[in-house]
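ok so dumb question maybe but i'm new to this and my supervisor (M.) told me to 'just get the structure for SRPBCC family protein' and walked off. so i did the thing. is this what she meant?? sequence i used:
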Amino acid sequence: MSALVYALGAVGLAVVGVLAVAATRPDEFRVERRARLAAPPEVVWPLIGELRAFNRWNPYERKDPMLKGAYSGPERGVGSRYDWASKEVGTGSLEITGQQPGRAVQMKLDFIQPFEAHNQAEFALQPLPDGATEVRWTMHGPANFMSKLMGLFINMDAMVGRDFEAGLQHLRELAEAPR
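this is what came out, is it supposed to look like this??
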């Protein structure tokens, strides 16, 4: 046999191996970051529990100054919705699906482009004894085969986590600003 046949066979085996490894990865993903803010929950909550205020520090909103966004539904609370379209961050929507005022907010996050994904996001506030607040930002959802395959080459936790960290830093700046 020629070297070309061996090379093609090796490439084929490698591809099958990568696909097999991808198939064994978890069916769900989870990204979480936390930050301590030197502000009480009553100062932090309005910046998280209302989408217009959330977008003041949302790291994805800041990535594209040309982003087109539209709010719908109630101004705040369950049913508040934000749709966006952007060349930099894609197309999708964010909708508040649950709230525990002053403590937590749950959101449905739907991406349409550049790839379709349907995830859940949550912000949880934990008051600390010194008057500060710990904010936990979590996103989780199903991992389809393509995202499992991409996960072999791209560390999604690190990539999305960097955005969460930048967002929490911007939130810190707003929450800790002198009043």
